[in-house]
Design a protein that fits this description.
The protein is mostly helical and about 80 residues long. The chain is built from 4 helices and no strands. The protein is elongated and about 40 Å long. The chain starts with a helix and ends with a helix.
């Protein structure tokens, strides 16, 4: 849900590195799942694809935040460049 995604995006700024990495991993998995859904179901294709694209954009935007650690910024850039 949107509130879960917002919470995960906020967690990218958490003080704990473990929390930040877990949040990023969860968001990456969400993107992969949305993309997989868009390939398997024609009716969900557009919605899932749009959700994945929107989340990628949100991750890229979050990487510009001064409140995000360099480790997370680098991980976001690496992930986005692979997909």
């Amino acid at each position: 849900s949107e509130s879960t995604i917002e919470a995960l995006l906020s967690a990218l700024e958490d003080e704990s590195e473990e929390v930040r990495l877990t949040a990023l991993s969860t968001l990456e998995n969400y993107i992969l799942q949305a993309e997989a859904n868009s390939e398997t179901s024609a009716t969900e294709s557009t919605v899932s694809s749009q959700k994945a694209t929107a989340l990628k954009f949100q991750l890229e935007t979050k990487a510009l935040s001064p409140n995000v650690s360099e480790t997370i910024k680098q991980a976001i850039h690496e992930y986005v460049s692979l997909i």
